[in-house]
Specification:
In chain A, about 35% of the residues lie in helices and about 15% in strands. With about 375 residues, chain A is α/β, with parallel strands linked by helices. The chains are: A alpha/beta (about 375), B alpha/beta (about 240).
């Protein structure tokens, strides 16, 4: 990849003591947001880019920690000097969303009212709540308007929501591998994932922390299922085919096919560090996301709430069957109907939904070209 | 054995023979153009002359966005392009153009009825299979359609065929085996289709290979002298 890594980074914490009433009606009396920044905020504070994370992401977008050189940010390939999110030009902010499990307040944090982890009592958060908390972080950082808000998948939904909820505060939105709302199939996948967690005997109604256990089996299954939907059939075929680990059938239920080995490894790895309650919250935020709902399902009306000067780059991937190009084109159509400035790229990459995380020359060149034209 | 031929054109700035084939309906954009035409494309000058300041313009097969950029810069239009080719999408975004990646053959559902004043299709109609479909879509989306295309009845093209070889010229810069063109038609053919499908020709400019306007009272003579034609179409007069 061209350009350089941002190198050593460190995370920061912002405490917010104003209570936040969420879309669900729940109230979080006070909360922390953990975030990282790369590059330098200019004097006019006009060069800030917010990176929104997807289901399992967090604030550690780029670079690595001095004491953990192998802990590289989840979107390191796109952030840094000379990279599309060029830290010589932009001040890039990554934040762990409310309800997360990487340091921001979430179900595994202590509920000050009880002195115990929030667990099942942590209220359901919506994408619009994340936009609100991100806006409060922007206030804290002195950023009136983002030069761009960018995200893939659930992150793209946040970028889109920003343009509707806070139209004056976002000059460009880069919405990648996303959708204006989930399909029934998408929700169905999420529900199977949730059921895996909810029916794990170690779940204990969400209060597993007090039982000194974690619903690892459920979370592992949820991740295995999710992982299948993030990849393309072709890619799985190329990567694993029907390869057997030991060359011949064993006629039992142990790991035989390479693809089984891979999925179990991914499931185990994820279940080892991710919080099951956060996984539940994130999938619900996905399911509920539907910014056109308040406008009677009319996305054209919903996007009319965006600022006429806000620019949009919408990108999709040809092999993404979780959020197909057709879903991105719904967003494009709604923006065109409102006469908004929008460009749309349909990128031919073989990695399914996960393509948005890949280091592809054309994909990155498109994002780079769009961001380079932003006048500060 | 096929030996690449030089274009039958005497034009010094003609496109090289065996020009790189382009994908789909992308219009060929050539750097070495007519010096008298600021954009290197004489039809662009004609099209620009028909578009009024502030108009909403959709350019189908917009390439790298050269025409739209020119119209935005000089006429203050609001423009959107449609393009199929990855490299052109990237170039158009670099040019600061609103560009939508898509395939003209698959319809233009993302565009609402009468959303544009002008829908432009420059040097691309001959690469589209669904000729009637695209013309219908253009006038669904736009008040006016602006179409330019190479005239296969141009006398040099006819001479080439009489000599036994398919024409290669300034306006047809491809070998028969690498051409993106799938429809071969003339001015008179196109006008007959317009009559048949109820499209009104509001204006017409016929250009020779050097991009100079040609005119004649005799339609057949015009069909013989014109290398490139530019039309302005609408549903109603």
């Amino acid at each position: 990849m061209p350009g350089q890594s941002v190198g050593v980074v460190h995370s920061q914490r912002a405490h917010f003591c104003d209570p936040l009433t969420l879309r669900s009606g729940g109230v979080v009396p006070a909360y922390d947001l953990v975030y990282e920044t790369y590059g330098t905020l200019n004097a006019a504070k006009s060069n800030a880019i917010l990176v929104c994370h997807a289901l399992s992401g967090h604030h550690h977008v780029a670079g690595h920690y001095a004491d953990a050189p192998n802990n590289v940010g989840w979107w390191d390939n796109i952030v840094g000097p000379g990279r599309p999110l060029d830290t010589d030009k932009f001040f890039v902010v990554g934040v762990n969303n409310l309800g997360g499990c990487h340091g921001s307040t979430g179900p595994s944090s202590i509920n000050p009212a009880t002195g115990q982890p929030w667990g099942a009592d942590f209220p359901i958060v919506a994408v619009s709540d994340w936009v609100e908390t991100q806006a409060r972080l922007a206030d804290r950082l002195g950023i009136d308007a983002w030069a761009a808000v960018i995200g893939g998948s659930l992150g793209g939904m946040q970028a889109l929501r920003w343009t509707i909820s806070q139209p004056e505060r976002v000059r460009n939105a880069v919405v990648i591998a996303s959708a204006p709302k989930l399909s029934a199939q998408n929700i169905a996948f999420n529900d199977v994932a949730r059921q895996a967690i909810l029916t794990d005997p170690d779940f204990h109604g969400g209060n597993y922390y007090q039982h000194h256990t974690r619903p690892v089996r459920g979370l592992r299954l949820a991740r295995m299922l999710g992982h299948i939907t993030y990849l393309s059939d072709d890619q799985m075929g190329e990567k694993f085919g029907r390869e057997l680990r030991n060359g011949s059938f064993a006629f039992d239920f142990d790991v035989e096919f390479e693809v089984e080995s891979y999925l179990r490894y991914q499931g185990d790895k994820f279940a080892g560090y991710f919080d099951a309650n956060t996984y539940l919250l994130m999938t619900k935020a996905l399911d509920y996301f539907d910014p056109a709902r308040l406008d009677g399902g009319d996305l054209v009306k919903a996007m009319a709430r965006s600022h006429p000067d806000t620019g949009f780059l919408i990108a999709s991937f040809t092999t993404d069957w979780r959020f197909t190009p057709a879903r991105s084109k719904e967003i494009v159509a709604a923006l065109l109907a409102n006469g908004r400035n929008v460009s749309y790229a349909e990128i031919d990459l073989n990695f399914g939904h996960d393509s948005f995380l890949m280091d592809d020359a054309h994909y990155h060149a498109v994002v780079d070209a769009y961001l380079r034209n932003i006048k500060l | 054995m096929t030996t690449p031929r030089t274009p039958v054109s005497e034009c010094r700035n003609g496109a090289p023979s065996g020009a790189t084939p382009i994908r789909g309906e992308a219009a060929p954009l050539r750097e070495a153009g007519q010096l008298t035409h600021t954009l290197g494309r004489p039809d662009f000058d004609v099209i620009a002359g028909w578009i009024e300041p502030g108009h909403r313009v959709l350019d189908l097969g917009c390439g790298d966005g050269t025409l739209l950029k020119h119209l935005i810069d000089t006429r203050g239009v609001r423009g959107v392009g449609v393009e199929i080719d990855d490299a052109n999408i990237l170039a158009a975004i670099r040019n600061g153009i609103n560009v939508i990646q898509g395939n003209l053959e698959r319809g233009l559902d993302e565009f609402a009825d009468q959303a544009f004043d002008h829908v432009v299709l420059s040097r691309t109609l001959q690469t589209v299979r669904h000729t009637e479909g695209i013309l219908r879509e253009m006038l669904r989306i736009g008040r006016e359609a602006v179409v330019s295309f190479p005239n296969f009845a141009y006398w040099k093209n006819l001479r080439s065929v009489l000599d036994g070889r398919m024409p290669v010229s300034e306006d047809l810069p491809y070998q028969w085996y690498d051409s993106p063109n799938v429809r071969f038609f003339t001015l008179l053919d196109f006008e007959a289709l317009c009559t048949q499908t109820g499209l009104v020709i509001r204006e017409r400019r016929v250009l020779d290979e050097a991009g100079k306007p040609v005119d004649s009272d005799d339609e057949r003579e015009l069909n013989f002298l014109g290398s490139l034609a530019v039309y302005r179409l609408s549903r109603v007069r």
